[in-house]
Amino acid sequence: MSTPRQPRRHFLQHSAAAATALAFPLVGGAQPKPVKVGILHPVTGALAFSGAQCRAGALMAIEDINKAGIKGLGGAKLDVMLGDAQSAPQAGAAEIEKMNEAGCSAVVGAFASAICLATTQAAAKHGLPHVVDVGVADQIVERGLKNTFRFGPGYRTCAQVAVNNLGVLNTVAGKPAKTVMIIHEESLFGTGTANLLKEKLPTFGFEVAEIIKHANPTRDFNNIVLRMKSVNPDIVIPANYFNEYALLVRTMQQQKVVPKAIYSVLGGAASSYKFLKEFPDAANGIIDCNHWFNPKDARSAALRKRVEAKGLFYTYEIFNTYTAVRLLADAIDKAKSADRAAITAALAASTFSDHFMPYGPTKFVNGQNEGAQPLMTQVIKGDIRVIVPREYREADPIFPLKA
User: Fold this and answer.
1) By the 8 A CB rule, do 149 and 132 touch?
2) DSSP state letter for 176
């Protein structure tokens, strides 16, 4: 039985409708699925300033990554889940559970060593890759967790570099400094750093006259500085977070305590433009061994301009977390997958070099980037300048400050 011929107009209308119906699913299907990642920091509580700085760095990195898309996944973008560790390890671990349930492919964070210790352990239960942005305690990467990757140096490396350089500076100056006083915050970061310094300083001829720990937070350093006056050390080494560091040094200034050097190891304010702007006299001359960018790389200067245009200070929290997120995106690109195991394998094999940190290409051994190193900075003439090592040097060190 023959079918009646359809009018040409009716045929064209149906053809156009069919083409449209086919086209829309194709267009929709061409959009790559975003990759959900967790960004976890202490944005409330005692560590809120540093946590907020870390988050700002992470979001700027995600903005840059999403402009280009992840090529290995057809231009996919990162879908961010933000978490607040509330300056407490248990809160950080609880946020990891939420991120796991939400289907995050990876996590970046969580600033403080004690928090990172808890969050990496919680993430390991779910095979969730965790890139540590700052946390310096070496226990974080020494527990055999296959999911954990730290981009920056740990406190063992930082303490060794700091003491080696202090020994050189003191020798060149004729060994004017003999005694050291260490003041540290009481958590894993401060206590671990102090223990390492106590072990290493005597090998360079320094006497550790006293070690004082303080609570975090602490709002009054008068008694500690009175004790400092009594001990009268040649060098004071602080190891604490921003608020306590700033208050300690300001109290020293108020009580007119002037050692031959304030020589920080991972000092929370010592290499901070915020501290320098707010308390320039107290900051003058301070030496710090800490996370720092390559000052000769134009990309770091460009990011600094963007950060300051937002009304923020360009601190290590921002550029450490910025580059840690870029590291993760590079691994997702290489893995060509949002699968956790694939991303973990890509991180383990990473040779990431598209960054402005003084590290060279990434090489992870048991989760630690072997090329990561701190730089030595000093506040000189109202600016923070790199003094060691020579290939990044911007100014010659001034040591001792007090003759």
Assistant:
1) yes
2) -
pLDDT tens digit sequence for 334-364: 999 999 999 999 999 999 999 999 999 999 9
Q: Both ends of the chain: CA-CA distance in Å?
A: 112
pLDDT (tens digit per residue) in 224-281: 999 999 999 999 999 999 999 999 999 999 999 999 999 999 999 999 999 999 999 9
Full set of structural domains in the chain with CATH: 35-153+297-372 (3.40.50.2300), 156-290+376-392 (3.40.50.2300)
Half-sphere exposure of 186 (CA within 13 A, CB side): 6
Taking the mean position of all CA atoms in its chain, how far away is CA 160? Answer: 19
The sign of the torsion formed by the CA atoms of 159, 350, 114, 87 equals positive
- Residue 117 is given by DSSP the state H
- C-alpha to C-alpha distance for 132 and 150, rounded to whole angstroms: 5
Give the pTM.
0.91
**Hey, what are 303's tokens?**
């990011």
Q: Which residues on neighbouring strands pair with residue 377, listed in sequence order?
A: 288, 386
Buried b (16+ CB within 10 A) or exposed e, 23-43: eeeeeeeeeeebbbbbbbbbb
3-state secondary structure 261-295: EEEEECCCCCCCHHHHHHCHHHHCCCEEEECCCCC
Query: pLDDT category, 30, cuts 50, 70, 90?
Result: low
> 3-state SS string over 22-78?
HHHHHHHHHCCCCEEEEEEECCCCCCHHHHHHHHHHHHHHHHHHHHHCEHHHCCECE
Token readout for 281 is 């006299």
Helix, strand, coil distribution of the chain in percent, nearest 5: 45, 20, 35
Give dist(CA 37, CA 143) in Å, integer.
24
Pairing of strands 207-214, 35-41: unpaired
Decide if 135 contacts 113 (C-beta within 8 A): yes
Q: What is the largest CA-CA distance in the chain?
A: 113
Q: Which residue has the tokens 């890759």?
A: 129
